[in-house]
Every structure is written in structure tokens, then in C-alpha cells.
Amino acid sequence: MAPSTDSNVKDENSQVSYKKDINTKTGRILQNKKHSNDIFDVIEYLQSEKDKEIIFATNACKRVFCQLFYRGDLYVGDLPQEEELMSGDRSAEEKYRIFMRHRYNNCVELLLENMGHEAFQVKEASLCALMKFVEAEGKHPLQNLDLIEHYIFPRELLRTLVEHLLSTEEDMSLLISRFQEFLEMDDVRYYVMSSVRDNIYRVMGRNKKAVIPVYQNNVYTLLSNINVPSQGSKMKHFLVKQAYRPEEWKAGKLKEHKRAFEQMWLLFLKFKLPSSMYKKILVILHESIMPQMSDPTLLIDFLSAAYDIGGAISLLALNGLFILIHKHNLDYPDFYKKLYSLLDPSIFHVKYRARFFHLVNIFLSSTHLPAYLVAAFVKRFARLSLTAPPTALLILLPFICNLIRRHPSCRVLIHRPSAAEEPCDDPYVIEEEDPAQCHALESSLWEIKTLQKHYHPDVAKAAMKINEPLTEQEEEISEVLELSTFELMERDLKAERKTIPLEFDTATELLKSPREVLGVHFSLE
Amino acid sequence: MMRKQQTFSRGLSDKVRKSKAAPEIQKNPFEVKINRKKFDVLGRKSKHDVGLPGVSRSRAIQKRKDTLLKEFRLKDKNNTFIDRRFGEYDSKLTPEEKILQRFTLERQRTQDRKDMYNLNEEEELTHYGQSLAEMEKMTDVIDSDSDSEEKGLLSAELTATHFGGGGGLLRKKSAGDEEEEHKPRSRQELIEELIFKSKQEKRERQTQKEEAQELTEKLDQEWKSIQNLLAHKTPKAERTDETDKPKLDQYDMMVRELGFEMKAQPSEKLKSAEELAREERQRLQTLEADRLKRMMGDAEEDAVQTNTHVSADDMNDGFILDGDDRKTLAYKDGKWNIEGEEEEKEDEDGDEEGGEEEDEDDEDDAEGEDDEEEEGEDDEEDDADEDHCDLQSDEGSEDEDGQGAEEEQLCAEEPPAVSEEQKKAAQEAARAELPYTFPAPESYSDLKQLLQGHGSEQQRLILDRTLKCNHPSLSAGNKAKLQKLFGFLLEYVGDLATQNPPDLRTVSALIPQICGLCQMFPEAACKAVQTLLSDSGHSMEETLEVKGRAPMPDLDMLVLLKITALLFPSSDFRHPVTTPAFLFLSQALTRCAVVSLEDVCKGLVLCCLALEYVSLSQRIFPELLNFLLGLLHLTVSDKHNMGTAVCVCVCDLHREILDAIPEKPSQHAPLVFKKKKPIPLKLFTPKIVLDYGKKRGNTKEEKERERLKHKYKREFKGALREIRKDTRFLAREKLSDVMSRDAERKRKVKELYGSLATQEGEWKALKRKNRK
């Protein structure tokens, strides 16, 4: 018992002591230039084993160097080597500045390293400190520049920061979401975008265009956090204020932002991506990427490549393609043929079912589509419905009915009074990829007729509708798009019923009932 | 006002018409208007055949002059009502303050009014406007009658002394007078006597009542002794009558007793076994018919209409790639089943097998095979590897495997038959051991305590006795207890199934009790199963959302689904329990990941359950097919891993499936809308209605209604007419006012002009005079 308390006390002591130590040292550094060597000790704490000490030291460094920036105690211009410090004939003041500038560089290096630390708090503190330095450098530039020619921004520091943020080994998504706060500022965003672009180019080029999931994930997280404001007039929120002609600064122009955004994304999408990444990007593409690009049609390569991949990715690519076709006048040959070939039983089970049906509904809403095409779609959907779960069927059946309503020439699918009533083979060819060749118009929707015996009452009722001429009014399918099985279950669970019918011949054993199936194949034990 | 006026005026005109005062008017043909009748109805007296329009008009005008015109003249010249109550329109005062102020004002006023120096005068206190003093007097009288037993019945003396009225009382008083003549008594004495008398009376009544009580008790006892002999209860009213009667003779009682004695009542004839069987059959028939009706659900009419071979076709077209005739047969079988009385059981068995084959024929066969095979695996589930070795060792001996499975099955079925005697003996023993009454468990842990540690048969017995002891007819609270018990039982069954190893025998043994409880309380049972289903459905949905895949449901859920099938009809078109159960099955079959052999087995159990659910209603279950197809794919991919042994099995299976699938793909007739009833052409022949004229209401109320309606209409019209006349009259009056005013003005102007003219004339004359 005693030792542990002892150690506790010690811990506390050490805690107090390191705090005191750092505080006194920072105080002394700032007070008097004589004590400037103490900065070594403070910087040393940045490499400490303990997270708390690192954080505390980081904050202290932040304070010290910001103060120094403010005083102008950091050397400006090309920095001489430390070894040369003594040789040159420099005033003491100048020497001090050079010395401090070197310490500052050391500190920045250590902080960048700390961004790869295990503890999130350390990462966060380092990130904040670095951003503070970015701000300070912006105000008090370290390069000796001709102020009239250039706009001041610590590009180099930000570039290295982004490089560390987009680690190739570690998932930095938490830190990146913390970084989002700084991305609100327009100049930071602009320069981050350009640094990201350089970074991607460099890293992907180095890796010979192979897939680097961790890195790409980091990049994706960062990119998806970048939001270009919709109006240029709102670009007034800067980290570094420009004194000279702020209206001509690139970072203040929406057009430039959009261009940078576009180039960054296009570069990112140019390289090969893991399939999960494809899905993630495609999910947000139409909402948060395309509207912010200056020319969304440039995405066509990416989208058509994604569309050709097949499966869920194709389904998701549909959305982007739709926007391009609809808004940007894109001509996509054999679009419907492609769409037709996308229809397979998996569409009922993917996560994006609602979105897919919403889009297909839009694609097939035109009344100018040829009848054979619509019939092929209807027939395909009907055939697929034989394997669909009830929630999908509740979308599918009204959808099919709507299609037939829109295209009265497809009514023969459910009503062919001229034909003899003899059964004949179904002329529809399910294997045929081309909707024009699949003989859908000659067939009938016997599948729906089959579904009239579906076990779920709602489905059976919906299927029952083709028995009679369809009403004029289309059915709304948007409400059922998001319906889940449990919600469907709850409909019956919640419904009030007066009488509950019971099985009348009571069973005596678990596996003995009049219509036993389980008992035939299985036994107890 | 209008109405009054109207009736009044009509009355006036009537009077005019009838009065003999103006015969010259009545005779004047210019004054008289004869109302022409359309039809002459014999025997009807008409009042209004002759009218005197001139007279009635002048009367009406006179009347208006008297009333309306006066009102018009006085318009806007009315007095106004000024509210002088203190602070009535002062919004600054709160209601309390207002009331207080008013009260003080009132006090001051009353104070002021009376003589200031009259100290004796007290003001009268009131409550609800009644004098408190008065009220006090009244309550005194009422309070004296505090005896609750008398229920407000006052004795004659009491009323006489207090109120001193009534004929009889007067007489008595006079008697008292006589007594007073004998010996004058003081008022004190009189009162004492009165008190004494009333007390005595009270005592007498008490004793009488006690006697009556005793008698009723005695009667009750006797009644109880003969009660069990009686076939039916006497109506309650009779019994109370008896007790109420104060005097009961021995004789009366004897007579009553004899009356109550049980008469030989005609009992129902003992039914012979055949009759019983017939009744039972009838009951089952109606129930079965009911079930079929429910199965059709809303589609009932459709089914009736398309009962031709087409619909039967369709039913199986869905999946099954052949066997139209077989299907229709099966359907007939179902129908036949209801009519076929004798071999219901056998038939059903046949049906079941038939259904199984037909429903999803080839696939299903495959499934059957699969099942058996899987069961073989399932039995040695624990050591899957060994199982595979087994499979490898008996290469191609698929038949043997099947046989083995069957044998195991037989074994599984046999034990209950063999141990019948043992069971009996065990039951006896258990009966000897177990107490006969059990309290209904209040919580799940109670139930667990009650049942744990006993064999399955004993548990069943315990439950049975608990149910009997706590039958709802025995006590009011039992119903709720047993309803709760159902929920606990389901939980217990779930626990039994999740135990390791699962105790399914006990579950099976408890089934009759669960069924019994369910029959007793369908609502509670429905609620309990629903909550379980919804809970597990919800948890599955959640895991699906979080992880994207969910594990197969556990054994307890499988058992619950099975029990659901036993308790509730799965063939209903829509059922509050089985429809969600269907959805749960579907969810489990589509969304749950199959990662182990155990999962495969669970999935197959689910498939069997699904098949069982739809076996009567012959519905399609797409998820079932999907799942089985998926399983087949799994086995095919296994082939590469496992080598030839499984491959051979699969090949066998494959061959069998291929055999089962017919060569020709199924055929479908093109769809046609259901035939509608043709809409008849519009015809031009007149529509003949046999009932003439307007239909009068038949009942008294309807007639009354009609009459009132008619009356209202007439009155309304009359009122309108009157209002129009009023306005016309007023307009006329106004016009005449204006005219008269104008005339007056003109006259005055003329006068003025005249006077001026004369003045001018005079002046001119004077001037002329002067000039001259």
C-alpha cells in the first residue's frame, strides 16, 4: 500500500515539477535573452515519454515562439548554418535571432514528428501549435521577400504539415476531422488544396500508381472535409490578412478555389482506387463534389470507368452520370442498355436500393422511350421480383404498374385479349443483354400473377392490381423506398385487431402438428 | 314579431270575413276574391275559399301603422342603459378589490339608511340569499331524525308533535285535550313520554329485525344443504324477497323448501360415440372453412371467381416448372379434405406430403435430400471434420447415408412410443410426490424455481396443476396471473432452448399447456409472441445496420417460430402474429450470414419452418428458394476444397434435381384482365314506378317530421312575405314623409314670395304715388 501511495506522491511531484520547470523556463526565456539556452530543455520535453509532458511543452513552445514572432526575435531571410554562426561578424542581437530561428526549426520538426504520435491529444496539440505557427509566420514572414511582388503565406510549412497529415501508414481521420476547423478559413483551404495536389502527385507517382489504402483513405477524409463556399462574396475569412491588394489574391477568389478543388479531386480520382473507396466517393459525389467543381464534365472518365466496374459501384455511378446527362448535356451511348444489364437480383439487397430505384424511376419517367425498351425493363423487373424480399416487392410492384401506366402500349403485358388462352412458352429471353432483342413485348407478366400468392398480404394485394385495368393515377413509391423489414413487421405488430384467430387443432408435441415439415426432417435432441 | 303580426293579421282578416258587421263589404263583388280550387274534394271544408283582399290589406296597413311605424318613428330615440356599478369598467382594479369596494359601499349604504343610533338592529346574515337564522331552524328539525335505520320514516307521533298537522293528528290532539282535562301534565312530562315511546318503538323494531335475521340465517343453512341438489340457481330476486319478509311461518318455510326441492329435469341425452364424433367433425369443418376464408383474405371474391382451372394453374406456375394437374389435384384435395370426414388425419398427412412435393417440387425435393444429408451432418455437428471424414469414407454411398438419417429419425420418433408405460409409471410416481396445488407464479424467477429440478413430465404435471388451481373461473385475479404465466412460459421455453445442451424434450412436453393457455387468452398470447418477435426482429435490424450482417437466429427463436406455427394459423391472409413471423423468417433467410455448418443447419430449419407455414395456403416464399440456391452454390464451391467425396454427393443431388425438373419449361397463358360486367346500354323506355306520387313516411315519426317540414316551409315563406311588405310599407312612409316635407317647404317659399311680391307691389305703388 505504502509504496503505491509513495509513487503516487512522486508522480504528483513530478507532475508539478515538470509544469513548474517548463513555466519558469519559458518565463525566463521571454524575460531575458541570457536565459535563452533554457529553450533546449523545453524542446527536449517534446520528446518525452509522457503524453502530458509533451502536450504541456507543446503549448509552452507555442507560447514562446509566438511571442518571439511578435517581438521579431526570429531571424528573417536565408538562414546561415549554425556552425557558421560564430565565424561571421554579426552582432549579438543577430546571433541571438539566428540561434532562436534554429530552435524554432527544431521545434517545428519535432512537432511534425509528434503528429504521428500514438496519443490523439499529442497529435491534436501539435497540430494546433503548428497552425498557430502558420498564422504567426503569415503575420511575420520569415522569408525576406519583396513584399510588393508576393502574397505572404507560409506555403512551405503548410505543405510539410499536409504531408504529415496524409500519412501513408496511419489512419489520421480523427486528426483530419480536427483539422477541418482550420479549413473553414479560405486561405488555408486554398493552400491546403494545392499542397494536397502536389502531395498526391508525388506519393502516387512514387508508388507506381499502386493502391495505397491507408493513404488514400486519409486523402479521402481530408478531401471530403473540404467545402468550397457557394458564393465568392463570402470569402472573407482568412488566417493571414493581406495588406497588399487583397482583392487580387488567388486565395480570395472563388474561381481559383473551384479550380484548385477540381484539380485536386481529378488528380485523386485519376489513380486506381480500392473498391470501398469507389463506393465512398460515389456516395458523396453528386452532393458534395460535383456542385463545387467548375467543370463537372471532367468527371466523365472517372464515372464511366466506375460504371463499367459493375455491381454496387455501377449503381452508385448512375447518380453522377445522371447529373452529367441531365445538367451538362452529356451524351452517353447505350445508356439504357447498360442500365438494363445492371439489373440483377443483387439490386434488392444492396444498401443503396432506395437511391437506385429513385434514379431508375427518373430514368424511366420519360414517356418518349420506345415501348420495347420499357417492356424489357418491366419484364426484367418482373422476373427479378420472383427472388425479391417483400420490402423490395413493395417498391417493385407499384413501380411496374407505374411504368405500364406511363406507356399504354405496354399494356399487352398484362392484357392481351386477342391471344388464345392456351398456355405457351414465355418468349422472353432473360439472358439477352440487349433490350431490343429480348422479346419482352411478346411476353406476359405471369411473374406478377405468381406473386399474387405471395405470403405477405401487402405484396399479394399489390400484385392483385394487374387483374383489373390500372387506374389513371400513378402510385407514389417514394414513401416505400426506405422501408425496412422491421418497419414492415411493425405495421402488423402495431395494428389493432379485435379478434385473433387461433390454430384450432391443438398440438401435443413440439414436432407434431397436422402439417409437420420440420418434424419430418429433424428430431429433438 | 313578424310571425305574430302575420297570425294576427290573418286572424283579423278571418274576423273580418266572418263578422257580420260588414255585410255590405262581403256582398260587394268588387271586394270579394274567390280562391279557385284545382280539385273539388268531397267532404273537405275549406276556410279560404273566399277572401277579402281590400279589407285585409287595410287592416294590415293599420296594424303596421300601429306597430311598425311607431317603432320607426321612435328609432334612434331610445333611452340608454348606463351601468353605474362601482368600478365595472375600471380595468385597473382587480376583481377582488372591486368586490371589496362594492361590499364596503353596500355596507355604508345599509348603515346610512337605518337609524344611526339604533344599536339593537342587527343586520340579517344570509347564505345564498336565504336567511341564516331561518336555515338554522330548519336544520334543527332535520338533525333530530338522526336514526339512520329508519331512513326518514317518521313515526306518526313524531310528526304530530313537530308539525302538529293532519286530520288524524287533530283527533289525537283532541284526545290529549281530554287527558289534560283528567290530569294536567306539564310540557316536560309530555316530552319525556314522547321520548320513551319512540325508544320503545325502536327497541321493538330491533327485536323484530333480529328475529328476521335469525330466520334468514336458518333458511340460508337449509338452503345450502339442498343447494347442491338443485339443478339451477333460483333467481336472486326471489331470494331477497324471502329474506325481506319479516314473519316466516314454519309452514311457509316447509312449502318453500318443498318448492325448491329439485324437480326431475329433462337432461340432455347421453350422446353416443358416433354423435360425438359427428359433432366434433362438424365443429372442425366449420373451423376449417373459417380458416380457408381467412386464408383468402381480401382476395376472397377473386378466388371465388377464378376458381376455374386457370387460377389453379397460376398458383403453381409461380415456381414450379411443371405439374399443373398435380397442383389442381392438391387443391381439390384441400377441398376434399373438408368434406371427407373419416380420414381427415390420413388425408392431411397425405396432403402434407403432397403439398411438400408440389409446392416447391423439384427444389423442395432437393431440399429434402439436402436436409437429410445436413441432418446427418447436424447430428455430428460438434466434430464437423469427422463428419467430412465420414462422408469421404462412404464414397458414393449416398443412399446409405440417407438410410442412416432415416433410421435416426425413426429412433427419434420411437422412444416416446416405447416408453409409454414408463411414462405412465413416472406420472404415477410424480403424482405421489408432487403437491396438488400450486400458486400461480408472479414472476419469471418464480416460475423457474417452480419448474427447475423436475423432469419434463413432472414439469408438465406441475404446470397442469397450476393451471387447474388458478383457473379464471375460480377467482377474479387468476385471469391476469395466467396471462402473465404465458409470457413467462415462453421465456422459460426460450431459456430451455438456449441451455447447453438444449432441453427440447421438456419444451415439447410443455406444448399442450402452452396451447391450452393460448386458447384461453388469445389476446395475451398474441401480445407475448408479438413482443418476442418484435424484439428479436429489432435487434437483428440493428445489428444489420451496424455490422451489415447478422448472425443466424438462435435455437430459442427457432423454437418460438415453431410454437407460433402451432398456436396461430399461418395460412391466414393477414394475421397479427404470423405475418410478422413470416417477415422474420424472410429477414433471417435473406440477411443472415452463413458462416458455419451450424448456420447451414439453422437455415435449413428455417426453410422447413417456412415450408410448414405455407404448406396449407400454398403461397410462394421467394427467400426460401434464394437461400437454398445459395446453399447449393456454397456446396459447389466446397467441391474444389473437399475433393471428390462431396463432389459425388453433389453430383448425385444434381442428378436427382435434374430428374425432377421436367424437360419442357413451364408454359404460361397470356394475361387478360378480369372480365367486367358489361355496362348496359341506355334505354329509352320510360321508367315505371308502381308506387304513385310522393312517398309519405310510414311511421308516425316520419309523418310528424314531414308535417313539421311543411309547416316550417310555409312559415318561412310567410315570414319572408311579411318582411317584404314591412319594407315596402316603410319605404312608402318615408316617401310620404319626404313629399310632405317638400310640399311644406314649397308652400312656405310660395308664401314668402307672395309676401315679398306684395311688399314690392306696395313699395312700387308708393313710389308711383310719390312721383305723382
UniProtKB/TrEMBL annotation, chain A:
Alphabetical list of SUPFAM superfamilies matching this protein: ARM repeat (SSF48371)
GO biological process, alphabetically ordered: ribosome biogenesis
Lineage of source species: Eukaryota, Metazoa, Chordata, Craniata, Vertebrata
Subcellular location as annotated: Nucleus membrane
UniProt membrane topology term: Multi-pass membrane protein
Record-annotated membrane-spanning stretches: 302-325, 356-378, 384-404
Keywords linked to the UniProt accession: Membrane, Transmembrane, Transmembrane helix
Main location as per UniProt: nucleus
Pfam families listed in its UniProt record: CBF
GO cellular-component term (any): nuclear membrane
Name the record gives this protein: Nucleolar complex protein 4 homolog
Recorded family membership: Belongs to the CBF/MAK21 family.
PANTHER family attached to this UniProt entry: NUCLEOLAR COMPLEX PROTEIN 4, NUCLEOLAR COMPLEX PROTEIN 4 HOMOLOG
Domain CCAAT-binding factor: residue ranges: 314-463
UniProtKB/TrEMBL annotation, chain B:
PANTHER family per the UniProt record, alphabetical: NOP14 (PTHR23183), NUCLEOLAR PROTEIN 14 (PTHR23183:SF0)
Record keywords: Nucleus, Ribosome biogenesis, rRNA processing
Any single Pfam family the record assigns to this protein: Nop14
Bias (Basic and acidic residues): 181-218, 235-248, 262-297, 323-338
Protein name: NOP14 nucleolar protein homolog (yeast)
Biased composition (Acidic residues): 339-411
Cited InterPro entries: Nop14
GO BP annotations, alphabetical order: maturation of SSU-rRNA
Subcellular location per the Swiss-Prot or TrEMBL entry: Nucleus, Nucleolus
Region (Disordered) residue spans: 1-29, 141-218, 229-248, 262-430
Function: Involved in nucleolar processing of pre-18S ribosomal RNA. Has a role in the nuclear export of 40S pre-ribosomal subunit to the cytoplasm.
Similarity-based family: Belongs to the NOP14 family.
GO CC, alphabetical: Noc4p-Nop14p complex; small-subunit processome
Biased composition (Polar residues): 1-10
